[in-house]
């Protein structure tokens, strides 16, 4: 393991010394309610479409936890901005059609909630 790390550092150092640049993009990691701009009393919604991705953060760049289908239950806590074009944060209330466990927290595009 130490050899791989040293080799990586040598390659990186050499590239930087020769005037190269390395693009270090941040990874999209899980985001909880810290991304919320509008809080709400807990409200239960049903998913209004089939194929809505349930994600670790508010946006397509975040990893999908699973897929939600029409009728799946979602408890809404907050959202990123006004309801149009926003993402809603909450938790799954009962096992979803695709097997996401109750209590799993994540994000869904708000227009997919009724």
Automatic annotation (TrEMBL):
The keyword Signal applies. InterPro entries: SH3-like_bac-type. Residues 1-30 form the signal peptide. It holds the Pfam family SH3_3. Keywords: Signal. It comes from the Bacteria. Residues 50-114 form the SH3b domain. Transmembrane segments: none annotated. The keyword Hydrolase does not apply. This is SH3 domain-containing protein. The lineage of its organism: Bacteria, Bacillati, Actinomycetota, Actinomycetes, Kitasatosporales.
